[in-house]
Write a structure and sequence with these properties.
By secondary structure, the protein is mainly alpha-helical. Helix content is 64%, strand content 2%. The strands form two sheets. Strands 1-2 form a two-stranded antiparallel ribbon. The relative contact order is 0.15.
């Protein structure tokens, strides 16, 4: 028996995911004007893309083959794992009821917003220019990026390449400064346009999602304007369509070739944008095949994460991604290169159902801690910047089942804004940071 094209084993967890999301939407829509920017709302959007739109599109189209392998037998496991993951994210979220810590306002905070935003942005451009050996201008226009710039080598080449992610936090700080003061438009607009061009030319779409998402979120959080669910839905579908156009026209480090879509229409753009969601299939393969035909990898993701920052020139034996590549080779044979899975698939690959449950619970728990911290400081512009960048980074956390990469990208895409928060705290006058000590008086005899 099939339900809307799904088998019974697929339909029940699929409907469970939809019902959980619908329930969360109904109970949270009354949670104030900023509810749609809560981590739980963002996580639901991400899961909806990967575990509702993705499977539905694949089943309706009948295209369930990836890299010459029929992935349909893994759908029920993927959906069951996604349902359990979402439930335990919610449980972790509601279990953390500790109030966020209040952060004192720093004097002249608009000045420091501009100061640190400029420095982080300039640092990102300078380091990335070094990585391209001065050829960064070849990447600015994605419609004319016709040659791959020669990249700098050496032990720290990867660090230089990833420094372009500094622009995400730097531009977010500059944008909040502009929204608050109506000053510094050029300081925001020029780096923003350059970053969009460079990110599009490079071809890794997650950077565009993080940059655009952080800027939009910081606008609504700073202005404290309610974003309607209808506008948010339209924005998500527009973003999927844009990602589809990039997917059809991109060549990594060489920009876009629009001639390749002259015969395409808006429907094909949207369907192409959904191709990314098909990583749920490989996630299901991990749950279905481990440990029956492939052993759990245990602590290898954690060990690889600890070794990942060490340059290969210093430690040539490190193979940070070997545990993942070996599994992908097991599934796809010689065609496994470039395949990916969702985060809960990696948790299962490591420790089975306990790993999936604990990993999902921790994501929910830390997401609630982030939200509580924001609520306690929701008018602080530095906290808004940190929150916006972090809540958008949940997209990478969920969609990239490769812990070493997720951790490394965090330090280049999000950590700089937390460094700014730390530095700003140091500028708060000491009398505001130290509690007043009231001496105890001996009772009269």
């Amino acid at each position: 028996m099939r339900i809307f094209g799904f088998t019974q084993q697929e339909a029940f967890p699929f409907l469970g995911i939809v019902l959980v999301m619908a329930f969360l939407f109904l109970i949270r829509r009354s949670g104030g004007r900023l509810w749609i920017w809560s981590p739980l709302s963002v996580l639901c959007v991400i899961y909806f893309y990967y575990l509702v739109l993705g499977p539905a599109q694949a089943v309706i189209s009948g295209d369930t083959t990836e890299r010459l392998v029929n992935m349909r037998p893994f759908y029920s496991s993927a959906l069951l794992g996604g349902f359990i993951s979402l439930v335990f994210i919610c449980l972790g979220y509601v279990s953390n009821r500790k109030r966020g810590k209040k952060m004192q306002q720093v004097p002249n905070q608009d000045k420091w917003l501009s100061y640190y935003g400029k420095w982080i942005t300039m640092l990102g451009f300078i380091l990335f220019t070094i990585s391209t050996k001065g050829n960064i201008t070849q990447l600015i226009n994605p419609l004319d990026a016709q040659s791959v710039p020669e990249r700098a080598g050496g032990s720290f080449a990867n660090y230089l390449n990833l420094s372009v992610n500094f622009l995400i936090t730097g531009i977010t700080l500059l944008f909040i400064h502009f929204v608050r003061t109506k000053k510094g438009l050029l300081w925001f607009a020029i780096p923003f346009v350059l970053a969009l061009g460079i990110y599009t030319s490079i071809g890794f779409r997650y950077r565009l999602i993080l940059l655009l998402g952080s800027v939009v979120a910081s606008y609504y959080l700073t202005k404290r304007i309610r974003l309607s669910a209808l506008v948010a839905t339209a924005g998500v579908f527009l973003l999927i369509t844009l990602m589809g156009i990039i997917n059809l026209t991109r060549t990594y480090n060489r920009g876009l070739n629009l001639e390749s879509i002259e015969q395409e229409d808006s429907r094909s753009f949207f369907e192409s944008g959904l191709r990314e969601s098909l990583i749920f299939q490989c996630t299901g393969a991990a749950i279905e095949l481990v440990p029956e035909t492939y052993e759990h990898v245990g602590f290898q993701p954690i060990i690889s994460t600890l070794l990942f920052p060490i340059p290969r020139a210093i430690y040539p034996e490190k193979e940070s991604a070997r545990y993942l590549f070996d599994f992908l080779d097991h599934v796809f044979g010689p065609y496994g290169q470039g395949a990916a899975m969702m985060s809960f698939g990696e948790y299962y690959l490591a420790f089975g159902w306990p790993g999936l449950i604990i990993g999902s619970f921790l994501i929910g728990w830390f997401s609630r801690r982030l939200w509580n911290w924001f609520l306690a400081n929701q008018r602080n512009p530095f906290v808004i910047a940190a929150y916006a960048c972090t809540v958008m980074y949940l997209y990478v956390v969920i969609s990239r089942g490769y812990l070493p990469q997720v951790t490394m990208l965090f330090f280049f895409s999000v950590f700089p804004v937390y460094a700014v928060v730390y530095l700003v705290k140091k500028k708060i006058p000491r009398r505001k940071r130290v509690r007043r000590i009231i001496p105890q008086v001996e009772p009269a005899h």
